């Protein structure tokens, strides 16, 4: 039965814990019932797997008025909403269609401007356009106000531009290393940290710096320095600073990534569900990350449900990096739920339709999932054929420099050759043992290698036991004791 408060329930469900935390900090309600409703919204926001119904006997106007109040308060601090307002105003100024009420608001913001704002660069450039508009119309008093603003904040504007350009230089090294070439990015860590903590700098550049620090953390698998920065940003959001729904969802998704690296999968999943509260450009990426965490928790049915609910977004997205990644994890979810034939059929059809895009964006994760399916089906001939036809071992050699590299495709191929009797047991053992030895330098990869070995165990029980008895238990990397 549909609730009398269904629209309000839907609205309340779209709110985030940082939304309600901020709202509770600024409310001055004299109406106790209104405050109780807000507190209940906050409770429901934080307890993502349960819902305490609202009192339907209360006057509906209380809910309607509270919804209006919440929307107005959040819009007032929303940096993305402010950016949209500035963009619209810029268009009106450039086309000589600005209205008197628009000008009043712009002049008021110039007078009461407090540096730094999130999109300071955009606001500065808006005032520059407005200055031209004013002078040619002989509006000297308003022109003087705009001109004084520009003179006062021009050094900060130049600093923001230079910082943004340097961020681009850093990003080239960071992304290239993440993509697997021989670039280094650690040299940018100190400077990016300084940018992030610079409270005299605009918020946009500071947030961009944090995103790049996250990439560096993944490049070097060093996540400890990020915890302090996430806590710092968390407090800013609670104060209503740098607020937007988009930034909060991105923060939640990044929190999922961070806590999953610390093996805190409960907290990672909590943030993952929060990241899906509203749909945006990165929704597919967020859903994929959540499903990956749920698989680590052995919640295979739940992971598949998340992917199925996000599937319509995959069909329409133009982002093939996100699309291929989603499909790979969709196949993995089907595998975990032992729906191997469905997984094989889907992987076959997707490869036929998007082979070029797969190799351009995320070939490794797609073929890892596909080969996992064929391994479960014990279709060793098709595994070997797929690997050879697509020259995966040649590509794999270039992939080894990545920070999170595992010898997955090499081992899949070797196991398939062993089962097809083109590789003997001793050669298989030596190949796998040599690659396991690299864990001495990368002990953080040990849990993933352990998972991979467990997956292969039923196919190569003798080799598996030899590795454990003769190497792994002795080194205490994967199987201590």
How does this model look, in words?
- Helices cover 74% and strands 0% of the residues.
- It is mainly α.
- The longest helix is centred in the first third of the chain and has 40 residues, at 140-179.
Main sheet summary:
none
The residue-averaged pLDDT reads 92
Share of helical residues: over 70%
Low-confidence segments, given as residue ranges, are none
Global morphology: globular
Rg over CA atoms, rounded to whole Å, is 27 Å
Count, helices: 24
Percent strand: under 5%
The termini sit apart by 56 Å
Q: How are helices and strands ordered from N to C? A: HHHHHHHHHHHHHHHHHHHHHHHH
Summarize the structure.
By secondary structure, this protein is mostly helical.
Architecture blueprint of SSEs:
Blueprint: H1 6-14, H2 17-26, H3 32-46, H4 60-77, H5 79-94, H6 100-111, H7 120-135, H8 140-179, H9 189-197, H10 203-220, H11 224-238, H12 245-261, H13 265-275, H14 283-296, H15 300-316, H16 320-336, H17 340-361, H18 363-376, H19 380-389, H20 392-399, H21 408-419, H22 425-436, H23 446-456, H24 461-475
Helix pairs in contact: 2-3, 5-7, 7-8, 8-10, 9-10, 10-11, 11-12, 12-13, 12-14, 13-14, 14-15, 14-16, 15-16, 16-17, 16-18, 17-18, 18-21, 19-21, 21-22, 22-24
Main attributes of the structure:
481 residues, mainly alpha, 74% helix
């Amino acid at each position: 039965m549909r609730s009398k408060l269904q629209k309000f329930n839907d609205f309340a469900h779209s709110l985030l814990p940082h939304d309600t935390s901020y709202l509770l900090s600024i409310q001055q309600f004299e109406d106790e019932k209104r405050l109780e409703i807000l507190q209940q919204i906050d409770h429901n926001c934080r307890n993502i797997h349960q819902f305490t119904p609202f009192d339907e006997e209360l006057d509906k106007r209380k809910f309607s008025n509270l919804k209006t109040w919440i929307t107005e308060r959040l819009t007032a601090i929303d940096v993305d909403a402010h950016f949209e307002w500035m963009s619209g105003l810029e268009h009106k100024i450039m086309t000589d269609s600005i209205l008197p009420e628009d000008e009043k608001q712009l002049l008021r913001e110039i007078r009461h401007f407090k540096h730094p704002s999130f999109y300071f660069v955009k606001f500065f450039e808006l005032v520059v356009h407005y200055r031209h508009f004013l002078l040619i119309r002989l509006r000297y008093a308003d022109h003087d106000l705009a001109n004084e603003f520009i003179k006062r904040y021009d050094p900060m504007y130049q600093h923001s531009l230079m910082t943004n350009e340097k961020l681009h230089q850093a990003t080239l090294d960071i992304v290239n290393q993440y993509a697997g070439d021989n670039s280094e990015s650690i040299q940018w860590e100190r400077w990016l940290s300084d940018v992030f903590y610079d409270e005299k700098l605009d918020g946009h550049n500071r947030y961009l710096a944090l995103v790049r620090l996250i990439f560096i953390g993944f490049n070097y698998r060093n996540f400890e320095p990020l915890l302090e920065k996430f806590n710092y940003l968390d407090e800013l959001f609670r104060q209503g600073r740098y607020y937007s729904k988009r930034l909060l969802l991105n923060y939640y998704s990044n929190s999922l990534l961070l806590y999953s690296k610390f093996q805190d999968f409960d907290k990672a999943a909590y943030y993952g569900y929060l990241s899906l509260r509203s749909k945006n450009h990165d929704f597919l990426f967020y859903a994929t990350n959540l499903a990956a965490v749920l698989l680590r928790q052995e919640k295979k049915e739940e992971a598949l449900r998340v992917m199925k609910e996000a599937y319509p977004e995959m069909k329409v997205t133009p982002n093939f990096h996100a699309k291929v990644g989603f499909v790979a994890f969709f196949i993995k979810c089907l595998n975990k739920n032992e729906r191997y034939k469905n997984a094989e059929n889907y992987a076959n059809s997707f490869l036929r339709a998007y082979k070029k895009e797969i190799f351009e964006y995320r070939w490794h994760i797609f073929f890892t999932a596909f080969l996992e399916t064929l391994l479960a089906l014990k279709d060793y001939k098709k595994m070997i054929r797929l690997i050879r036809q697509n020259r995966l071992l040649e590509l794999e050699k270039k992939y080894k420099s990545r920070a999170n590299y595992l010898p997955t495709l090499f081992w899949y191929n070797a196991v398939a050759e062993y089962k097809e009797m083109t590789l003997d047991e001793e050669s298989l053992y030596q190949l796998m043992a040599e690659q396991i030895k690299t864990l001495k330098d990368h002990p953080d990869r040990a849990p993933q290698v352990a998972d991979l070995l467990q997956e292969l165990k039923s196919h190569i029980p003798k080799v598996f036991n030899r590795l454990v008895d003769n190497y792994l238990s002795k080194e205490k990397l994967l199987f201590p004791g």
